[in-house]
């Protein structure tokens, strides 16, 4: 009896959506599953620009009255994702106003990021480094795009950023500044 029930349920699942017409696809779309559609191949310049823009958006989650300056490093480096792909890595430094405690600002940023990224594109998590520094990670598991936020020097929060992976054009050497 239990076997017949399992077979019946399994066959019912194969029947598809009874409300869908025969020309409608029953395969879920990105909007059905809340996943981002696949990203078209990026150039390193597009990956860099997008990652820098997102880092500044993250920095904007810090209350303005706690910020003295935001400096985005002009160049970054390429790191290998695989034998054929690389990602662009850069950094943004946020100098805090005197009296602002970096760890509490990073914790506030974590709370703001959880509220900001409700579209499920990015996951927000936190931990402590081996040195005991509180750190927030904002990452997209689908593309490997990642932002690590922590106190760098006293009174300075650093956003280390890594773009989605991309393939370099033939003949481009991945060493040096990008």
Computed over alpha carbons, the radius of gyration is: 22 Å
Helix content: 25-40%
Main sheet record: 7 strands, antiparallel
Average pLDDT score: 83
Separation of termini? Answer: 66 Å
Instruction: Give the helices and strands as they follow along the chain.
Output: HHHEEEHEEEE
- Helix/strand-derived category reads alpha+beta
- The gross shape turns out to be globular
Low-confidence stretches: 1-38
The number of helices is 4
- Total number of β-strand segments? 7
Indicate the proportion of strand residues: 25-35%
Task: Report on this structure.
- The chain is of the alpha+beta class and 178 residues long.
- The chain has a domain at 44-162.
- Helices cover 27% and strands 27% of the residues.
- It is built from four helices and seven strands, in the order H-H-H-E-E-E-H-E-E-E-E.
- The chain has helices at residues 2-14, 30-33, 44-59, 102-116; strands at residues 67-72, 77-80, 86-96, 123-128, 134-140, 145-151, 156-162.
- Strands 1, 2, 3, 4, 5, 6 and 7 form a seven-stranded antiparallel beta sheet that branches.
- The chain is globular.
- The N and C termini lie far apart (66 Å).
- Residues 1-20 form the signal peptide.
- It comes from Arthrobacter bambusae.
- Keywords: Signal.
């Amino acid at each position: 009896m239990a076997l017949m029930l399992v077979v019946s349920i399994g066959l019912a699942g194969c029947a598809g959506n009874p409300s869908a017409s025969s020309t409608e696809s029953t395969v879920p779309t990105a909007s059905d599953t809340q996943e981002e559609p696949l990203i078209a191949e990026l150039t390193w310049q597009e990956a860099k620009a997008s990652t820098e823009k997102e880092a500044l958006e993250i920095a904007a989650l810090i209350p303005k009255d706690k910020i003295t300056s935001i400096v985005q490093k002009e160049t970054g480096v390429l790191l290998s994702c695989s034998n054929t792909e690389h990602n662009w890595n850069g950094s943004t430094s946020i100098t805090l106003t005197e009296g602002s405690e970096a760890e509490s600002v990073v914790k506030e940023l974590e709370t703001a990021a959880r509220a900001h990224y409700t579209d499920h594109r990015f996951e927000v998590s936190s931990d402590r480094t081996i040195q005991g520094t509180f750190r927030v990670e904002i990452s997209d598991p689908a593309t490997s795009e990642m932002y690590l936020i922590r106190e760098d020097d006293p009174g300075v929060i650093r956003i280390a950023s890594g773009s989605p992976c991309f393939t370099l054009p033939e003949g481009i050497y991945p060493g040096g500044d990008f």
